[in-house]
Amino acid sequence: MQDGSLRAYPLNDKDLSVDTLKDYWYLNVHDNDYGQIRGICCSHDDGCLITCGGDGNIFTFDIWSEEELPKELKVIIPPPRSGLEKEKGTEDIRDPDAYTIEEQKQKEEYERKMKEAEEKKNKKREELSALRQDFVFLLRKNQELPKHMQLHKEEFEMDRRIFEELDRQRLQRIQLVQKELAWEQEKQLIGLQKLQTQFRDSLEFTLTVHAIQSDHQISTYSLQTISEKYARDKKHGDDKWAVLKEKWTALKESEQEEEIPREAIPVHRVFEDEDEKLETPEVRKPTTRYIESRREKIRRLVEKYDALKAKIMKRRAEWHELYKSKPRDNYGNSKDAEEIKEAQENIGCYRLKTATNYTLTEDDRMNTEKKMMQLATLEDLIHKTKVNMNKEIVSLRDLKISIIDEIKSLVKEVKSIQANLDVSEHLPIPQIPQLHPDEVPEKIIEYNSDVLLKFKEEQEAKEPLEGCPSSRAFRHVFLQTPPVEESDPMAQAGDASAVVTEEAFEMEKAEPTEIELEILKREKIKNLYLQETLIKKINALVINFDAELRLLRHEKLKMDVQMKSADLRCITFCEELLILKKLEIHEDLLEEQICALINEQEDIQSKLKSYFAQMEDRKCEIVMLQEREKALYASFEASLGEDDEFADFLTDIFKKEVECVEKEEVGREADEENENKEHQEKPDLETDEENCGSQDAIFGDFVCPEGCSEDLFLNTIQLRQQRIGIEKALAEEEKVAADLKKEYNALAIKAKELETSLDTTNRELEAFQWEKLHRLNELYVVVPLRLHQVQCLVDGEMPRDFSQTLVFTNQSLQYLQKRIVDLRNEKIMQREIHKKAREQHKELLQDKKEMEAEIQRLEERCNNLMMEKFGRLVDFEAVQAHSVNIPMEQMKVRIMEKEYEHFVELKEWEERIVVLQHQLTKLTRENTSKLHQLNRFCHEKHQLETELESLTGQGGEFQGTQTSDLKETARLQSRLMHLTCDVAFLREEIN
C-alpha cells in the first residue's frame, strides 16, 4: 500500500492458514511515488471496495462472490492415437544457448548425419585394415618364395588408374597445404633472411681451397668495403672548365644564314575526275568518242606540262644546291686549320711532361674532381676484380663438393660391384676426399642438435637456476629443431628388404647349370670392367680438379701482381690528390674570374646586338626623312614653275628659319578644362583666333606682295612648316643615332678590354696548369721492372746515376719507331696525292674554260636563231609554261559536251514529234471514216423518208394489207432511231 498498489486475498472460512495467503490478486492503481493509499473501505452493501491515495485519486472495485465468478471454459482433449506408445518421445532442449527450436532441430539432424557418416567411416576403416593385413600377408608370402618365383610389384596392381588418382589427390592436398602455409613460410623466410643479413652477411671469411693429391691451395681475397670518401655523382661530373670553354667558343662563332629554296608549287591536274562525272555507255557514239579523245589529249598535254615544269624546277633546285655547296674563295676549314697548326707545332718530337714547352689539352688538365673520380674508379675496379676472383674460388669449392659427392656415389657403386667379385679380384678403392675446415668457414655459424645440446649444457652449467628465461627459450628451440644427421627410413627399409632377399637367395642356392655358369661369367667380366672404369673415373675427377686449381692459382698469382700495382697506383693518386687540394683554391679563383668575364662578355655582346639593331632602325628613319625632304623640295620647285618673277622671294621665304609657337598649346597646358569648355561653346571663334595667331607667328614681317598668287604664297608657307618639321625630326634622329654610336663604340672598346683580360686570365690558368703538372711530375712513382726489361747502358756499362734516365715502355718505343717509317711513307703518299690533285686541278680549270667558251658560243647561236625566227629574244621557259591554255581547252570540251547534250535532247524531241504526227494521222483517218459513215447514214435516212412518204400517199392500194404495213412501219421507225443515235455518237466523237 506504500507504493500505491492493492492486493486482495481470497479467504476460505474452513481453511485459514498461512498457505492460503500464497494466492492473491495484485493491481498497481495509484502513483508509485506519491500515490500512497491513505484510506480503504467497503461500501454499505459490501459490493464495492473504495481506495483513496495521496495522489488525489479514488478508485472503486467490484467485489464478486464465488457464485458470481464466471466459469472457466475447458477444452475437450481428444483421445491419443493408436501406436503412440511405440513412438519415441520428443527430447527436451537442454542447451541453454539454443536460440530457436528450428535451429536446435537442424543441429541435431546434422549431428545425427555426422554420427552415421562416422560409423560408415569406421566400418570402411575396419574393412581397409583387414584388406591391408591380407595384402601384407601376401607380400610376406611372396618374399618367402624363391627369387625366380616371386611376383613383381606391378603384378599386385589391379588397376593402375587407381594409383594415379591417389597420387593426383595426394599432390592436390600437398599443393593445398603449401598454399595455406605459403604466407607463413614467406614470413618466416623473410625473418630468417633479415637475421642472416644483419648478423651473418656482414661477416667475411677467408676461404681456402686445397688440392686433393698435392699441397697446392688458393685463398680468397679479404675484401674491404668501398670507401665513400671519394664517391661522387657521375651524372653531374661535367668539368666546369669545359663548360666555360664552350661558352667562350660559342661567343666567337658566327651564325650563317642559309637561303631557303623556293618551294615549287605543284600543278594540280585539271581533268582527274572528269571521267567519273560523265557516264559512258557500252556502245559509244562518234561524238562521245571525239569528246573523250579531246579530253585525253588535254590530259596528256597537262601531264607533259607538269613533267616539263617539274623537270625545270628540279634543274633549278640542282643548280641552287650546286651553287650553295660551292665554297667561297677565301674558304678555310677551321678544324683542318687547327689540326695543321697542331701538327706544325708538335710534329717530329715526342714531348715529355717534364718539358718546358709541353702544352696541356683540355682533356689532359687535372683537377680535384677528376682525380677523386679516378681514385674511386680504381678502387671500384680493384673491388670488382677481387670479387670476380673470389666468385671463381667459391665456384671451385662448390665443384670440389660436387666432386666429393660424385666420388662417394661412385665408391658406393664400386663396393656394390666388388661384393659380387672375389677378394683377389678387388682393386684398391681411392680414398674419398675430405673438406678442410677452412674450405667451409660458414659452417662455423651453423648449428645442429649436438651443438645445441652442448650449448644447453654450457648454459645450464653457467646458470643453474631453473627459472632462467634463456634456458627456457633454448629449451623451446631445442625441442623444435630436428637433428641434422638422421638416417632415411626408406633407405633403412630398402636395406632390410635387400638383406631379407639375400638371405632367401642363399637359402635357395643350388648347383648352377651350364647356362647359369655362362651368365655368371658374363656378369663377372662386366663387373670387372665396371670396377676398372669407375676407379678411372674417380682418378680423372681428382686429376681434373687439381689441374683447375693450379690454373686458377696461376691466374691469382698474376692478379696479385696487378693488385699490388693497383695499390701503389692508389697511393700515388692519394699523394696527387693532396697536391691538387692545396692548389685548388687558386685554380677555383681563376676559373671564377674567367666565368665572371665570360658572363660579362655575354651581356656586352647582347647589348651590342641591341644597340646595333637600334642604330640600323635609326639609319632607316634618317633615310626616310631625307627622302621626304627631297620630295618636299621637288614639290616646291614644281609649284614655282618656270619663269616666275617671285621665285627668289618665295625661295627666301621657304628657306628662312622661323620658330613656330602656338599660343593655344600654352593655354591648353595651363588650363585644359577651360579650353575644352571654350572649344565647346565657341568653336568658330577659336578657329579664327588660332589662324590669326599662327599667321602672325609664321608671316612675321613678310606680306604677300602685289602680283603674287596668294595660293602660291600660302603653299610656300605650308611647305616651309613641313620642311622645318622634317629638319627637326632629322636632327633628333641624327642626335639619337650619334648617342647610340657613342655607346656602341664604348661597349666595343669595353668588349675588347674584356677579351684581352680573358686571354690574359686564360694564359695565367694555362701557366698554373703547367705548374700544377710540374708539381705532380715531381712525385716518385713505383714502377715494377725486371732485369731483362732494363736497357740503360752507357759505353756498354750500366751508369750509377739514373736521374737523367727515362722509364719508357718497350711497346711505346716500338710504336714510335714504327711511326717514323709510317710517317715517311705517308709523306711520300701525300706528295703523290698532292701532285695528282694539282694536275686534276689544272685539268678542271682547262675544262672549265672550254665549257664556258662552249656555253657562250651556244648562247650566241641560240640568240641568233631566235632573232632570225622570231625577230626578238624569247623566254622559252615562259613559252613552255604557257604553250597550252588549259582553261580555254577545258571550256572547249565543256562546250562540245553541252552541244552534244543539246543535240541528243533535240533528237529526242524530234522523235516525239514524229510519233505524235503518226498518232494525228491515224486519228484523222478514223475521223474521215466516221464522216463517210455519217454521210452514208444520212443518205439512207433520206431514202427511207422518201419511201415512207411514197407509201403514205398510196394508202388506198394497200388497204388489204394493213397488218403487213404496220409491221414494216414499226421496223423502219426502230431503224431510224438507231441511225439517229449513231449519228449523235459520231458527232460527239468528231467534236
UniProtKB/TrEMBL annotation:
<keyword id="KW-0963">Cytoplasm</keyword>
<keyword id="KW-0206">Cytoskeleton</keyword>
<keyword id="KW-0966">Cell projection</keyword>
<feature type="region of interest" description="Disordered">
    <location>
        <begin position="665"/>
        <end position="691"/>
    </location>
</feature>
<feature type="coiled-coil region">
    <location>
        <begin position="723"/>
        <end position="771"/>
    </location>
</feature>
<feature type="coiled-coil region">
    <location>
        <begin position="834"/>
        <end position="868"/>
    </location>
</feature>
<keyword id="KW-0853">WD repeat</keyword>
<dbReference type="GO" id="GO:0005856">
    <property type="term" value="C:cytoskeleton"/>
</dbReference>
<protein>
    <submittedName>
        <fullName>CFA44 protein</fullName>
    </submittedName>
</protein>
<feature type="coiled-coil region">
    <location>
        <begin position="291"/>
        <end position="318"/>
    </location>
</feature>
<keyword id="KW-0175">Coiled coil</keyword>
<feature type="coiled-coil region">
    <location>
        <begin position="100"/>
        <end position="134"/>
    </location>
</feature>
<dbReference type="InterPro" id="IPR036322">
    <property type="entry name" value="WD40_repeat_dom_sf"/>
</dbReference>
<dbReference type="GO" id="GO:0005929">
    <property type="term" value="C:cilium"/>
</dbReference>
<keyword id="KW-0677">Repeat</keyword>
<feature type="compositionally biased region" description="Basic and acidic residues">
    <location>
        <begin position="676"/>
        <end position="685"/>
    </location>
</feature>
<feature type="coiled-coil region">
    <location>
        <begin position="906"/>
        <end position="954"/>
    </location>
</feature>
